[in-house]
Design a protein that fits this description.
GH, alpha/beta, 30 helices, 33 strands, hydrolase activity, hydrolyzing O-glycosyl compounds, Rossmann fold, 932 residues, Glycoside hydrolase family 3 N-terminal domain-containing protein, TIM Barrel, glycoprotein, 13-stranded mixed beta sheet
Length: 932
């Protein structure tokens, strides 16, 4: 092949040689494996991707790369291997060596310095270090624009949300890489900055923006980098879904690679596919077919990261495609030329077989150490310091105690040391020496413990240091807060680790309510430090002192300590368009919201309910499966209800529905349901319904709190959480509307089937006898007074309404009571009901089972009872017995505390049907709501 083409050496007449140059592959482990050797020698593999799993030190990396190149040279390769590496800095460094490889700020940290020159210097220094080890292709820069910044996993790996700023820093980094002799590769085309996770684990994330929107925003950095001479481009494996564009995997799409990247953006360099081993792609298409599709789409190099089986499958698929005439000779020549041009710029046999290694790295170390310190010192950002708490000497006496609260988070994603720790841990106990050596790239306890030591070395008073988790503020935290003179809270991506957000707000509230010994209110100083994404509290003015470091390497935290003690004045600034004036995802369309009219809208609402249930996640049962329009209408004089629709007045179709209830007894305003036609989402219909609901609930006299999720009707008990990626989207949607989803309460509905063969778990009946209570079953209003007095110990929304409905319907409902033997006082109750009860009308799950079903609802245990779990299980156990005696085949628990003993109920035969997060807040939270 190609012997007639003057631009190609006759050596490329061998089809296998050409094919090998169009693959990039990886392998497992720190040494050359028989598999990768065979790929190089037999299949002429032309490019290799190294990851943290391959790299242990600078010296080992140099030897590994040299051995790979010698293998290719001895096998007769006409040109050296292209060897690529992710070395983005911040938390993403594949090569770590505490002695010879320096740590530098993340892309967003560099943007915070405000200096493109510094970004260039850092990029060049980074490239010089890995080039010295024999690497010739930098898998960067990251050119994504964070158009949905607060919910994206990319985080600080890219510059921010301003396309021009991302572009200028990306180009500066690219030039730094190229000037150090490396080839550069932009990623992740067409953008990973606005991904939405809409489906299951086997679905890729989706770009829903139109091409027009991408063109004026996300594509700007890619366009400019191409203009400045970018060598290669990685095309992502994401899906694209917008008007006129429906792409399953971008890197397999001719529309994306040939049309958009080649023709519209005029890219002439090497196009590298995303890894075809990704589960979604290999499962849906297959690696062999995916390889042919990638080449035909316009990719020059197909990436397969590590699986030898998949790598062989890709080669065979490629050969079969050639044999079947699916790829022309001319097409393969084009890709080969691009790969050879890139290699010609970045490597040669002389260079590949003589990597400088440690000797040159030793010479670079002093100047690079200085550069690293300067970059980190320039990136630290004090976003706010309202009360002038900085430096700490402003507010603390020498002997005062400082409390440091740090989260338990995972190791940094791509640090070699953290990968090595993971591997060692899987084989046994990690080497303590490795734990110590890797402190500069470890998160969690190790690196934060070193932060505590650094803080303590600077002062006489003690530094009290403890961690926090999703369990929230514990008594030990409260004791330490009371003891300390100031509190320093560290967060790491609190927008994705929502427990951190809730914990920080809770501690801030505690400190704001501190009192002096004389009884005067004395606010305790609180400083919050975001050590990853700056978005954690950037717009929360209630956090008065807020600092951002952009990563949590030891170098970054050393600079942080210097800022806290006033050793230098930080000059970093938040990158992009973050500012107090910016409002997230504000609705741009305000739909006409009308009050629900039962006569007019019932049929159309039934159609909407069916469409919403049918559009549910495949394989999962919708909460609306057996609901009708009547399921939302209570007609209870003690509950004020108001429901709303967005509809088409011409066709009478209902596009969206929202139900609200005001429970007078508890002063709680509730959004019981809010759903939109699946075909009309992202048009602000939900926003408009939500705003109307909040405004209506605010008008009720005596409203004390608001809640998402309703016990009655028992359809949505809160935000649904059992639908994979949908859970994250829904939580984010409500959070952006102002709900603090971090402080939610887990609730669920459960079901037990096959009651005809059911029997209580061994030992449970005996443990019931030890509960220290007498049980009975009562019916009717004559028993109301003691029951209603008892449930006042629990102020949950809708509780009294459920009990009153049951007491008023003795033919179909009953109350199981647990009484203290000595005085007959009630210590526990639960409601029983069957399918003929009024209560069952508001529990659609009762109709879902397809058989005679009974229900158990709203257990209330007196707070004075010591054996809470035993008594609760006893009430449920007796309830199942009664329901079984009535001939029922199934039993539903329609509103159970998700934090209760679910395993205990599992032992009784129950399984979880639906899970929710009930979210509550003080009514005062909603002071102003935009118009619908």
């Amino acid at each position: 092949m190609g012997s007639h083409d003057a631009t190609l050496d006759p050596v490329w007449a061998d089809n296998d040689r050409v094919l090998g140059q169009l693959f990039m592959m990886g392998f497992e482990g720190p040494s050359v494996t028989p598999q990768i050797r065979k790929l190089i020698q037999k299949h002429h593999l032309g490019s290799i991707l190294l990851t943290a799993k391959n790299l242990k030190s600078a010296e080992q990396t140099t030897q590994l790369v040299l051995e790979l190149q010698r293998c290719a040279y001895d096998a007769g390769h006409p040109v050296p291997l292209a060897i690529g590496l992710d070395q983005e800095n911040g938390g993403v460094n594949s090569l770590f060596d505490e002695i010879y490889i320096r740590q530098y700020p993340s892309a967003m940290g560099l943007a915070a310095t405000g200096s493109r020159e510094l970004a260039y210097e850092v990029a060049r220094a980074t490239a010089e270090e890995i080039s010295t080890c024999g690497i010739n292709l930098m898998m960067g820069p990251c050119l994504d624009v964070l158009t949905n910044a607060r919910n994206q996993p990319l985080g600080v790996r890219t510059t921010g949300d301003d396309p021009q700023e991302v572009s200028s820093y990306g180009v500066a980094s690219m030039k730094g890489y190229k000037d150090a002799g490396l080839a550069s590769m932009g990623k992740h085309f067409p953008s990973y900055g606005s991904l939405e996770f809409l489906g299951s684990a086997l679905d890729v994330p989706t770009i829903t923006e139109s091409l027009e929107s991408l063109s004026v925003n996300a594509l700007v950095p890619f366009r400019n980098a191409i203009r400045e001479g970018l060598d290669a481009m990685m095309v992502g494996g994401c899906a694209m879904s917008s008007a006129g564009l429906n792409v399953m995997h971008a890197c397999l799409s001719e529309q994306v690679v040939n049309d958009l990247l080649r023709n519209d953006l005029h890219f002439k360099g090497v196009v590298i596919s995303d890894c075809l081993e990704m589960e979604a792609l290999s499962h849906n298409i297959g690696v062999g077919g995916g390889t042919v599709m990638a080449i035909n789409a316009g990719c020059d190099v197909v990436l397969l990261c590590r699986s030898y089986v998949h790598q062989q499958e890709a080669i065979e698929g490629f050969k079969l495609g050639i044999e079947n005439g699916m790829m022309s000779e001319q097409r393969l020549k084009q890709s080969l030329k691009r790969v050879l041009d890139m290699k010609d710029k970045s490597t040669s046999w002389e260079k590949a077989l003589n990597p400088p290694g440690i000797s040159v790295l030793s010479n670079l170390q002093p100047s690079h150490t200085t550069l690293s310190t300067r970059a980190y010192n320039s990136s630290i950002t004090v976003v706010r310091d309202k009360n002038r708490l900085l430096p700490l000497t402003n507010i603390m006496e020498p002997e005062d105690e400082l409390l440091l609260l740090t989260p338990l988070v995972k190791p940094l994603v791509a640090s070699a040391a953290s990968r090595a720790l993971t591997e060692q841990a899987s084989c046994g106990s990690p080497d303590p020496a490795l734990w110590e050596r890797s402190a500069s790239v470890m998160s969690g306890e190790r690196v934060f413990r070193e932060l505590g030591r650094s803080l303590a070395r600077q002062r006489n008073g003690r530094v009290l240091h403890t961690s926090y988790t999703a369990n929230g503020v514990r008594p030990q935290h409260e004791n330490l807060i009371n003891r300390a003179s100031a509190v320093l809270i560290v967060t790491a991506d609190a927008n994705r680790n929502l427990y951190q957000h809730g914990f920080t707000k809770h501690v801030s509230m505690i400190c704001n309510m501190q009192y002096s010994s004389g009884g005067e209110k004395r606010e305790k100083p609180v400083i919050v430090v975001a050590v990853s994404s700056p978005y954690d509290f950037a717009m929360d003015q209630n956090i008065g002192t807020y600092i951002c470091t952009y990563d949590f390497t030891e170098t970054a935290l050393t600079s942080l300590v210097k800022v806290l003690y006033g050793e230098f004045t930080p000059a970093g600034a938040l990158p992009g368009t973050i500012s107090q004036s910016q409002k997230l995802n504000q609705s741009k369309q305000h739909w006409l919201v009308e009050a629900f009219n039962e006569e007019r809208d019932s049929n159309a609402l039934d159609v909407l309910i069916k469409a919403t249930a049918d559009g549910h996640t495949p394989g999962m049962r919708s909460e609306l499966s057996s609901a009708t329009s009547n399921s939302f209408i209570l007609r209870n004089p003690e509950i004020l209800e108001a429901h709303f629709v967005v509809r088409n007045s011409s066709t009478q179709a209902v596009y969206g529905f929202c139900s609200t209830y005001f429970f007078k007894a508890s002063g709680t305003g509730v959004i019981g349901a809010i759903f939109v036609d699946p075909g009309r989402r992202k048009l602000s219909i939900g926003h408009s319904l939500h705003n109307r609901a909040i405004r209506t609930l605010l008008q009720h006299e005596g409203v004390k709190r608001f809640q998402i999720g309703s016990r009655l009707p028992s359809i949505y008990l809160g935000i649904p959480t059992g639908h994979g990626g949908e859970r994250k989207r829904l939580r984010s949607w409500f959070a952006n509307l102002g709900w603090n989803t971090a402080l939610s309460r887990s609730v669920c509905s459960m079901i037990a089937r096959n009651l005809s063969t059911w029997s209580p778990p061994p030992g449970m009946a005996k443990s019931l006898q030890s509960a220290g209570a007498d049980f009975d079953l009562v019916y009717g209003w004559e028993y109301a007074s003691p029951v209603l007095d008892h449930i006042k110990t629990n102020n949950r929304q809708g509780l009294s309404a459920v009990y009153k409905m049951a007491l008023a319907d003795p033919s179909a409902c009953g109350i199981i009571r647990a009484k203290r033997p000595e005085d007959g006082a009630l210590v526990g109750t639960v409601v029983l009901y069957n399918q003929h009860s009024q209560l069952a009308e508001f529990v659609p799950g009762m109709k879902d089972t397809g058989e005679l079903t009974g229900g158990i609802s709203s257990p209330v245990i007196s707070p004075s009872v010591g054996e809470y779990s035993t008594l609760l299980q006893g009430l449920i156990l007796l309830g199942i017995r009664q329901i079984k005696q009535q001939g029922c085949g199934a039993c539903i628990l329609d509103h159970m505390d998700g934090d209760a003993d679910v395993d205990g109920f599992g032992a009784m035969g129950f399984s979880v049907a639906h899970t929710f997060e009930e979210v509550s807040c003080d009514a005062a939270t909603w002071t102003r709501v935009p118009p619908s």
